[in-house]
Automatic annotation (TrEMBL):
InterPro entries: SpoVT-AbrB_dom, SpoVT-AbrB_sf
Residues annotated as domain SpoVT-AbrB: 4-49
UniProt keyword list: DNA-binding
Protein name: AbrB/MazE/SpoVT family DNA-binding domain-containing protein
GO molecular function, one term: DNA binding
Keyword DNA-binding (UniProt): yes
Organism lineage: Bacteria, Pseudomonadati, Pseudomonadota, Alphaproteobacteria, Hyphomicrobiales
UniProt xrefs under Pfam families: MazE_antitoxin
Transmembrane spans: none
Amino acid sequence: MTTATLSTKFQISIPKEVREQLHWSAGQEFVFIPKGKGVLLMPVPTLADLRGLAEGADNKNYRDRNDRF
């Protein structure tokens, strides 16, 4: 298990082995999701990452949030 320490400026350095394993790079954006007494750290996907995600999805009977019931 790899650990990191919160600095006096409330920053945490992600260990090199974790960055390399997950292919994270400097400047990448992340979102923090509170989970109980911890937090889930997830990279924010780019538009290129999302391309094709809904390919083959059934768009019949699609209802927009502005549609009335």
